[in-house]
Amino acid sequence: MEFVDYYKILEINKAATDKEIKKAYRKLARKYHPDLNPDNKEAEKKFKEINEANEVLSNSENRKKYDTYGKDWKHSDAFEKAKQQQQSQQRSQSYSGTGGGYSEQDFSDFFESMFGGARSHTKQRTRQFKGQDFNAKLHLNLKDVYKTHKQVLTVNNTKIRLTIPAGIADGQIIKIKGKGGKGINGGLNGDLYIKFTITNLTKFKRDGNNLYTSVALDLYTALLGGEITIDTFNGKVKLKIAAETAQGTKVKLKGKGFPIYKKEGQFGDLIITYTIKTPTKLSEKEKELFQELKKIRDNG
Q1: d(Cα 154, Cα 179) in Å, to the nearest integer?
Q2: DSSP state at residue 46
Q3: How far is CA 223 from the centre of its chain?
Q4: Is the model's pTM score more than 0.70?
Q5: CB 91 within 8 A of CB 98
């Protein structure tokens, strides 16, 4: 696997503090964010690299592993486990001229036999290890997850065809088995975990499977009733307005909400709140009529 210099990606040096890493990440993330660079594949690639670098270097434990093992940092736990096992084996055996001790050369041979460049004179028992799990983030708009669709993701220079079910939620994590790092010595591949970040740029508020919006009624329709046409998430519908509809009245349109995750053809509800628009810039005639209505009301 090719070495990726995360310090170079964030434009910092290896002595950078946590504060400097955070500052560098925020600066570059703003510069290359997909929303500010639409249809720019290079910016999208750079944004993903910046996020990957930040996830490693902003985590003190991962940063230590990266600084120690370089491109093999994701296998550091396997390295340490293998080293401990080797040391344990060496302590339980006696070697002529060594007094049962353990040398760095012994582990160096063992290390190379597991991860490449094995020396012909070293005979080691092969152990299998599961590959490293990968984590990725996918940014989508709310409209993108209204219908099931396919996307091709690039994770560690590998293209993965992914079916995204309708109704997936903001912050939801899905696992794709076997799409992580390659197993060691024939071990199982790791898994890929994808976290979804859903941006809502619509006038609808999503809460679970339900959608919420407000619709403004003019005073006359609210008082006398009538019919209006409103926007739902996937089209327009006509609604009958009852006479004397009050401010804040709520109505529910069943099945006009958001798709229910992995339940094909099932949807939540759309809840509408009516607001009443007070007329402005009244003509003299309108003012007279409202005065008459007020008198009628007061004397009623």
Answers
A1: 11
A2: H
A3: 46
A4: no
A5: no
27: tokens are: 């600066």
pLDDT tens string 89-110: 555 554 444 444 444 444 444 4
Determine how β-strand 192-199 pairs with β-strand 134-141: parallel
Give the integer Cα–Cα distance in Å for 19 and 41: 29
Residue 21 has pLDDT above 80, yes or no: yes
The residue extents of the domains of the chain are 6-115, 134-199, 205-299
User: In this predicted model, what pLDDT tens digit does every residue of 254-281 receive, in sequence order?
Assistant: 999 999 999 989 999 999 999 999 999 9
User: How would you class 101 by CB atoms within 10 Å of its CB: exposed for 0-12, middle for 13-18, buried for 19 or more?
Assistant: exposed
| CATH number for the domain whose boundaries are 6-115 | 1.10.287.110
Which residues, including other chains, have CB under 8 Å from residue 62's CB and lie 6 or more apart? 55, 56, 73
| Residue 154 confidence (pLDDT) | 84
Tell which CATH architecture fits domain 134-199: Sandwich (2.60)
Hey, what CATH topology would domain 205-299 get?
A: HSP40/DNAj peptide-binding domain (2.60.260)
